[in-house]
Amino acid sequence: MTVNFAHRGASGYYPENTMLSFKKAIEMGCTGIETDVQMTRDGSLILMHDERVDRTTNGTGFVKDFSFDDIRKLDAGGFFSKEFAGEKVPAIEELIELVKDKDIVINFEIKSGIIIYDKIEEKLIDTIYKYGIEKKVILSSFNHYSMVMCKRLSKEIKTGLLYMEGIYRPERYCRFVGADALHPYFYTLRKEVIDEIKRENVMINTFTVNEERYMKYLLKEKIDGIITNYPDKLKKLMEES
Ligand code: G3P
Ligand code: CA
After folding, report:
1. Stated pTM of the model
2. Is the CB of 109 within 6 Å of ligand 1?
3. 36 lines ligand 1 (CB under 6 A)
């Protein structure tokens, strides 16, 4: 069965990467949650997409320059709608507490692009083991070196390679890197590519699929996971198909 990953929670309807957005996604029936992990100045893992707080909060500056206490003072809901003002930037532990006893997979995307966070892989993996959720987590990143580092730290925690453009024989690249899954942008998934990847038994979790016509195509092709801002729409199509 395809995993219905709520992208930054139910972010089509609620402020992304907030506890509200995650809770609403669960109410909508998602079976997975995708979220972005970054690190504060004092080494706390928090959930936010951008390296800067500017777009999704009332603050300004880089996550890496905020202490945890200061980032928690920001409003992470008002940018989306006044109605949601007062939502906070979640600590990773809050999401884990919400999900750990539920039949829901978490996809932690390690943000490691402009900013490289020192030892973020170690911290994330320690947190995962602390909560005993190693079997229900998949890590991903556009920084494939980060995924190699995660695999060195834990063989059993699954890893996925994010990419935007078409790669020739991505399943071979995935094996070469030692990852468990490909996390491609859905436009790269023409039928022949899907067939080649499947032939090598490599898992595919694709992003970010918000239109029903693409959801239908990917469900027909039995993709392992679909990452969407609208988990309710995907759930409905899954029930109909
Ligand atoms: O993990 C899938 C997707 O979230 C990757 O892109 O920019 O939305 O984090 P982005
Ligand atoms: Ca992401």
Report:
1. 0.97
2. yes
3. yes
Q: How many angstroms is it from 232 CA to the middle of ligand 1?
A: 19
Specify the pLDDT at position 131: 98
Give me the number of domains the chain comprises.
1
Which numbered ligand comes closest to the C-alpha of 227?
Answer: 1
pLDDT confidence of residue 118: 92
In a domain, 58, yes or no: no
What parts of the chain have a pLDDT lower than 70?
none
Task: Please indicate whether residue 140, judged by its CB atom, sits closer than 6 Å to ligand 1.
Answer: yes
d(CA 3, CA 207): 12
Complex-level ipTM: 0.99
Task: Look up 144 and say whether it is catalytic.
Answer: no
* Residue 161 forms part of a structural domain: yes
* Helix (H) or strand (E) run with residue 176 in it: helix 170-177
User: Which neighbouring-strand residues pair with 204?
Assistant: 182
Q: Is residue 70 part of a domain?
A: no
Q: In whole angstroms, what is the distance from residue 94 CA to residue 106 CA? A: 13
Name the residue type at position 25. Answer: A
Ligand 1 atom closest to the Cα of residue 207 is 2
CA 77 centroid distance within chain: 19
- 203 CA from centroid of ligand 2 (Å): 18
Q: Could you read off the pLDDT of 159-188 as tens digits, one per residue?
A: 999 999 999 999 999 999 999 999 999 999
Give me the CATH number covering residue 127: 3.20.20.190
Give yes or no: 49 in active site: yes
Position 143 scores a pLDDT of: 96
In a domain, 214, yes or no: yes
